[in-house]
């Protein structure tokens, strides 16, 4: 018996998974015993700092933590998140009402449309973008409206290009800076423009801040919530995944406007039962004692970036030098589409990169490389690419 015909419209309406072909080829190459260098996945190869792991070992023995956590999160975790936030960005929040714990920020991003999108409502999403913005909106019955991120606009959306009737109908906007996949950064001025737009049309802004800490060359990325009036219109998603190399741990938080936080918490309390408290305790250690170690990890990514970019330039490939994130967004040479180039690089150089159109139509003409392998492997990867192009 097959149940595939029983799939809901919400499943059937999901966009096609564009990495199928690359995954298939990769597995084929692995089966043939090829030495694959995988720059495909945005998952740091560096282990979580031992100070955090040790905190977890200790916390896991506490029987109090073996019981259900609260959805909102332990108050100690929320207080620490608020303090960390004030240290990084200067804005203050109420830990009791303006923060909620998340089982990774993906969980919060996926759930927020359930609180604020009715069937038929419009949500503004960036293209290219993290795929969960679109699927979260679709699952809530909403209609994603794409904001193109173009190189000529420094990969920022041009809000003046959003038609009046769309802006009127929009309930939610997703943004993400420093950006995955383009590695672009936003200015405080841009965030001010966003606040003004959101106020005019009463749109909730959801800023995905997964990469605000992963910065290079002395740059520090602003929070959306630093912009004047941002708290009136939005929240920000923070994640310990990329900041502290904790992707497997599943912990993050949302912070900002209390009504928006309460809406998200209401959905969550009906869907999940919060983050394992031992993990929250380890997260407290990450957000306090883990910061110094994290800084040394960003330096590792910075060195990898330098090595990789130098190699790309030798290979004649064009890209901007990223100031943040561990991605490099590379323009395909004339005559190549994203899918063809990724396939060519995989088949001929045994290097996995991600075709840009997998992140949306506006990603066509680009490929994304993740700096999630050691320096010597990155060198090897660009050398192999240079040889075949
Ligand atoms: C990695 C990533 C996230 C999600 O991280 P979690 O592990 O769920 O906290 C969210 N947004 C972007 C853009 C990412 O790249």
Tell me what the structure shows:
- The chain has helices at 9-12, 20-31, 50-59, 75-89, 105-116, 132-139, 164-169, 188-201, 230-233, 240-243, 258-271, 277-289, 291-314, 338-349, 375-388, and strands at residues 37-38, 99-102, 122-127, 143-148, 170-176, 204-208, 234-239, 252-256, 318-319, 327-331, 351-352, 354-355, 366-370.
- By secondary structure, it is an alpha/beta fold.
- It has two domains: 4-47 and 292-388, Aspartate Aminotransferase, domain 1; 50-290, Type I PLP-dependent aspartate aminotransferase-like (Major domain) (Aspartate Aminotransferase, domain 2, 3-Layer(aba) Sandwich).
- The strands form three sheets. A seven-stranded mixed β-sheet has the order 2-8-7-6-5-3-4, with helices on both faces. A four-stranded antiparallel β-sheet has the order 9-10-13-12, covered by helices on one side.
- The protein binds pyridoxal-5'-phosphate.
Brief overview, please?
With 389 residues, the protein is an alpha/beta fold.
């Amino acid at each position: 018996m097959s149940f595939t015909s029983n799939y809901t419209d919400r499943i059937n309406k999901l966009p096609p998974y564009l990495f199928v072909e690359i995954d298939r080829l990769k597995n084929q190459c692995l089966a043939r015993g090829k030495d694959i260098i995988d720059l495909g996945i945005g998952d740091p190869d560096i282990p979580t700092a031992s100070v955090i792991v040790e905190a977890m070992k200790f916390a896991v023995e506490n029987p109090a933590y073996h019981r259900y956590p609260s959805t909102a999160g332990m108050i100690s975790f929320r207080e620490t998140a608020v303090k960390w936030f004030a240290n990084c960005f200067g804005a203050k929040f109420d830990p009791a009402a303006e923060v909620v714990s998340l089982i990774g920020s993906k969980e919060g991003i996926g759930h927020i449309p359930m609180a604020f999108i009715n069937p038929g409502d419009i949500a503004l999403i960036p293209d290219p973008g993290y795929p969960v913005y679109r699927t979260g909106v679709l699952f809530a019955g909403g209609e994603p409206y794409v904001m193109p991120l173009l190189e000529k606009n420094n990969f920022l959306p041009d809000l003046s290009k959003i038609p009046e009737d769309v802006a009127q109908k929009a309930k939610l906007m997703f943004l993400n800076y420093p950006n995955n996949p383009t590695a672009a950064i936003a200015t405080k001025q841009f965030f001010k423009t966003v606040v003004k737009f959101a106020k005019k049309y009463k749109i909730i802004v959801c800023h995905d801040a997964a990469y605000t800490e992963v910065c290079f060359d002395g740059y520090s990325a602003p929070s959306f919530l630093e912009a004047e009036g941002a708290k009136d219109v939005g929240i920000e998603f923070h994640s310990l995944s990329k900041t502290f190399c904790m992707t497997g741990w599943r912990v993050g938080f949302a912070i900002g406007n209390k009504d928006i936080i309460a809406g998200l918490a209401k959905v969550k309390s009906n869907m999940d039962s919060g983050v394992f408290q031992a993990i929250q305790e380890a997260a407290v250690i990450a957000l306090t004692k883990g910061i110094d170690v994290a800084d040394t990890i960003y330096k590792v990514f910075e060195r990898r970036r330098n090595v990789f970019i130098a190699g790309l330039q030798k290979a004649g490939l064009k890209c901007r030098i990223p100031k943040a994130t561990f991605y490099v967004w590379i323009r395909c040479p004339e005559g190549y589409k994203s899918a063809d180039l990724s396939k060519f690089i995989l088949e001929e150089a045994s290097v996995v990169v991600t075709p840009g159109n997998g992140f949306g139509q506006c990603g066509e003409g680009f490929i994304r490389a993740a700096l999630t392998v050691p320096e010597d492997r990155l060198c090897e990867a660009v050398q192999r690419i240079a040889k075949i192009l």
